[in-house]
């Protein structure tokens, strides 16, 4: 099932619509507003574990679920947005501002069966072009992770292929380890 879309909006019009924070979130690119697909169990398990692993292995970065990032004419909501603490804008009370207006340092998308891979890749490449340092597209059906980084060839990782992470994230992972998180041990 394809997610609904609304066309011919400006970014400002899109950001003023009350529906964009409905679940699942809406994204905007090139005048087109598209609702993301609703996460399923495997997606949610991978997202939860990635958030915990990244946060548990870095004091420089924080991993945030479903953070709306509006920058360079788009408004996207990566499944996991990893951002340096120093890049999070704060208000006069020292609390984070609600709007994040830059590309995340590391964007992670977990492909759902109903999602269009090229739309996801387009958003990930936009992050790289606008200053992101790393992006992953995790495909649970193919047990693969597509990785993009500036000035590097794309890399598809499967099995014991080590995964590239940000400097400052003390984490060593393989594609195999990530997909093992989907194994539920029954007692």
From TrEMBL:
CDD domains, per database record: DUF820-like
Entry-linked InterPro entries: Nuclease_put_TT1808 (IPR012296), Restrct_endonuc-II-like (IPR011335), Uma2 (IPR008538)
Matches recorded under SUPFAM superfamilies: Restriction endonuclease-like
Putative restriction endonuclease domain segment(s): 11-169
Keywords linked to the UniProt accession: Endonuclease, Hydrolase, Nuclease
Entry's Gene Ontology molecular function annotations: endonuclease activity
Record's protein name: Uma2 family endonuclease
Organism per entry: Thermocoleostomius sinensis A174
């Amino acid at each position: 099932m394809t997610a609904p879309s609304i066309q011919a909006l400006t970014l400002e019009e899109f950001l003023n619509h009350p529906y964009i924070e409905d679940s699942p979130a809406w994204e905007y690119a090139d005048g087109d507003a598209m609702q993301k697909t609703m996460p399923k169990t495997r997606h949610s398990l991978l997202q939860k574990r990635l958030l915990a692993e990244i946060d548990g292995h870095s004091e420089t970065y924080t991993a945030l679920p479903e953070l709306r990032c509006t920058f360079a004419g788009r408004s996207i909501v990566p499944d996991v947005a990893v951002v340096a603490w120093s890049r999070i804008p704060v208000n006069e009370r020292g609390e984070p501002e609600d709007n994040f207006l830059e590309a995340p340092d590391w964007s992670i998308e977990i492909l759902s069966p109903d999602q269009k891979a090229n739309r996801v890749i387009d958003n990930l490449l936009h992050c790289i072009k606008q200053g992101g340092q790393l992006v992953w597209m995790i495909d649970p059906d193919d047990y693969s992770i597509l990785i993009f980084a500036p000035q590097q060839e794309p890399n598809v990782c499967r099995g014991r292929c080590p995964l590239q992470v940000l400097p400052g994230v003390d984490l060593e992972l393989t594609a195999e380890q990530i997909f093992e998180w989907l194994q539920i041990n029954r007692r």
